[in-house]
Amino acid sequence: MLAALAEIFTPLIPAIVVGGLILGFRNVIGDIKMLEEGTKTIVEVYPFWNGVYGFLWLIGEAFSTSFRLELLGQLQKKMGTTQILGIVLGITLVSPQLLNAYAVASTKAAEIPVWDFGFAQIPMIGYQAQVIPAMLAGFMLAYLEIGLRKIVPNAISMIVTPFFALVPTVLAAHVILGPIGWKIGDVIATVVYSGLTSAFSWLFAALFGFLYAPLVVTGLHHMTNAIDLQLMSQFNGTNLWPMIALSNIAQGSAVLAIIFLHKGNEKEEQVSIPATISCYLGVTEPAMFGINLKYLYPFVAAMIGSSLAAVISVSSGVMANSIGVGGLPGILSIKPQFYLIYTICILVAIVVPFVLTVVFRKYNILNKVDTAPIRTFGKHEFRKKAGNI
């Protein structure tokens, strides 16, 4: 499954990397209150940077929108079906006519627009930042097209197959598949909130720190914003956001280890170096889709490091004043009395994934695809396994 995902996502890596860097830069200038005694952001003080902040969103939004389109196009290519139908399907999931997914939580149920068919109403909700609904719809479209090709005569296939593959898929995406994705997100949000407010919060922190990165892969991590806001209103702070920032750092540190192990691979460094920077600024998708999921073992190493750092954070009572930028700048959202212990958490999130990635590679743990020379300090080492170097 991971190999198939990697093949689908690989052509999208340039867009993911550039989009991640742009969003990370916007986080720094627009969300970190570093000026006027920590009360204002760069954007709030300087009109020029306010203009830059707004202009960059044009590019960031384009990457965010086109990502779903290209994702479904690549999925159709992988399945041997029509790419343009996948792109059209993607447009129907993020169309401007739909209520943006980010606005759903703040919109009253009665105010959500619907398609009214008389006997039924279908909410007009977009699925921005959602991967699961898009992937489910993409596979449904592919299998419908493959099935129709077998039974529809070639003479009318050009007309019949696209129509009867696309229309039912779009309908299912908004009636069944999309709501399933949302429901999964709601369940995750409820579990996270309950876990963080229970007597076993340290144990939950270990699980959340370990599993947050896979949530990012699915797009369901955006559901945690609602939990953060609830925690902030109830406890005057959130202990969830610090763990999210630590997970960002851990994924970047695993990529940093890959840069060390594969030093000299200039083609890969075009992805890995920007991806590391993006992670440390709080955007992990370039690192995960571009490097860590490709090799798998750095992804797991980062999950373990994130889990350990999360346990230390929650057990020490670390709280953030607000949510905003993640990664290394995330420390600026931490309450000042927790700066020292959170710095230790950051060091854990840097060192543990780096070391584990090197160890996993050296002993071929969770590694089936990385056959590059193993780089150690000052030399290269080759290991043989199953007849391959």
Tell me the β content. Answer: under 5%
Secondary structure tally, helices: 14
Class based on secondary structure composition and strand pairing? mainly alpha
Give the rounded overall mean pLDDT: 84
What's the Cα radius of gyration? 22 Å
Strand tally, please? 4
Please tell me what the overall shape is: globular
* Count of discrete structural domains: 1
Which percent bin holds the helix content?
Answer: 55-70%
Transmembrane segments: 5-25, 45-63, 84-105, 125-144, 156-180, 200-220, 240-261, 299-319, 339-360
Membrane topology: Multi-pass membrane protein
Subcellular location: Cell membrane
InterPro entries: PTS_EIIC, PTS_EIIC_1, PTS_Sugar-Specific_Components
List keywords for this structure.
about 400 residues, mainly alpha, two-stranded antiparallel ribbon, two-stranded antiparallel sheet, 4 strands, about 65% helix, disordered C terminus
Give a brief rundown of this model.
With 389 residues, the chain is mainly alpha-helical.
How would you describe this protein?
The protein has one domain (2-381). Helices cover 67% and strands 3% of the residues. It contains 14 helices and 4 strands. α2 (13-31) packs across α12 (285-295). The longest helix is centred in the middle third of the chain and has 43 residues, at 154-196. It is globular, with a radius of gyration of 22 Å. The chain crosses the membrane at residues 5-25, 45-63, 84-105, 125-144, 156-180, 200-220, 240-261, 299-319, 339-360. Residues 3-376 form the PTS EIIC type-1 domain. Pfam families: PTS_EIIC.
